[in-house]
Design goal:
6 strands, elongated, two-stranded antiparallel sheet, 22% helix
Length: 125
């Protein structure tokens, strides 16, 4: 059986593992010495032509939401949405690939909810 890449998610600040039995393990260390520079991370999503055909609405929603505020604390929901794996902890309003995503900058928080994005000295620059 030929394995083909259908979606690839890259984020250098998170280790996200999908085990063969379908259990997610998410690891992220929030250091006491963290700065806003450390949470401003590159994030890109590649979707194969096959994925784009199979999940047109997901791709459309990602494009629609690509310039909206997003924090690494919401990574779980977005990855669950892209993988089409909603679960007990999944919240569509925090999923960039869902049509109900609408996080306002004043609501956005990071570092496990400790920091608000508007306090970032470089926000909006």
């Amino acid at each position: 059986m030929e394995a083909r890449l259908k979606r690839k998610i890259e984020s250098p600040s998170h280790d996200i593992l999908l085990r063969s039995w379908g259990k997610y393990e998410i690891c992220h260390v929030a250091s006491k010495n963290m700065t806003y520079d450390m949470v401003r991370i590159p994030f890109f999503i590649y979707l194969s032509p096959d994925y784009l055909s199979a999940y047109e609405n997901t791709a459309k929603n990602l494009r629609k939401n690509e310039h909206k505020v997003f924090t690494n604390d919401l990574m779980y929901d977005t990855i669950s949405g892209i993988l089409q794996l909603p679960n007990t902890f999944y919240e569509p309003r925090f999923d960039l690939s869902h049509d109900s995503y609408d996080l306002k900058p004043e609501e956005a928080r990071t570092k496990h909810g400790e920091w608000d994005i508007l306090s970032d000295p470089d926000y909006g620059k």
